[in-house]
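User: I'm curious whether this sequence folds into something compact or stays loose and floppy. Could you predict its structure so I can see for myself?
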Amino acid sequence: MTGAADAYHEGGVVGNSYPAGAGWVVAAHGELDQDTLAPLETALAAAADRHRLVVLDAGSITFGDSSFLNLLLRLHHTTTLRIAAPGDQLRRLFALTGADTVLSVHPSVEDAVATS
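Assistant: Here's the prediction. I'll summarize afterward.
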């Protein structure tokens, strides 16, 4: 589909997005808080509207706050969401809040896509 990747690319915190296996990968980077979250929310919602599996490549996210966590939990209820390669800060956030028992977290995009 021509331009599909462009439809998911929303500037600033959103990187490359691409098909992978049966799903769609959305890469994000930088700090994600209430002031910077909107482009990622748009990209993830668009991916969830079109794909049953959405993988968030979180390897380049340096910070996520409660609004970021809220977005992930809401999306988790509307589609199959997998979080790939979260760094130390995100892993701590998930562990402290118990989100790691709800969200599907994987060491890499490849593992997230391959998990059945």
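Summary: The mean pLDDT is 90. The helical segments are 4-8, 38-50, 66-76, 88-97, 109-114.
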